[in-house]
Each structure stands twice: as C-alpha cells, then as structure tokens.
Design goal:
The chain is α+β, with helices and mostly antiparallel strands and 57 residues long. It has one domain: 2-Layer Sandwich (Antioxidant, Horf6, Chain A, domain 2), CATH 3.30.1020. A 3-stranded antiparallel beta sheet has the order 1-3-2, covered by helices on one side. It starts with 21 loop residues before the first strand and ends with a strand.
Length: 57
C-alpha cells in the first residue's frame, strides 16, 4: 500500500463498505479536493465525499 500511496481498509479485501478497493489518502488542499471531485465525476475513482475516495488497486 505504501508503494501505491493508498491505504487498505479493515478486513481488506473483504471490507464491508468498499470490498476489495483501496482508500485514496485525503487531499491536502482545496485545489486537490476539487481535482478529486472532477476525477469522481469522470468515474476514475469513487467517493462518498471529497475526503473519502477509493479505487480498484
């Protein structure tokens, strides 16, 4: 997970909320948060909100 810059959820790959997907660390500034929401709209990643996004590994 460190190499890919992601976090593994509890019980990965059988997490109850996001399954076998990995968590993307939260953005560090407002610009990064806006870019993240654009990526979510483009279906590149999935998000519950700007601070909690995830993707396939």
């Amino acid at each position: 997970s460190d190499e890919k810059k992601v976090a593994l959820p509890a019980n990965w790959p059988n997490n109850e909320l996001i399954g076998d997907k990995v968590i993307i660390p939260p953005p560090t500034d407002e610009k990064a948060a806006k870019e993240r929401l654009e990526r979510a709209r483009a279906k590149e990643i999935e998000c519950y909100d700007w601070w909690f996004c995830y993707k396939k590994l």
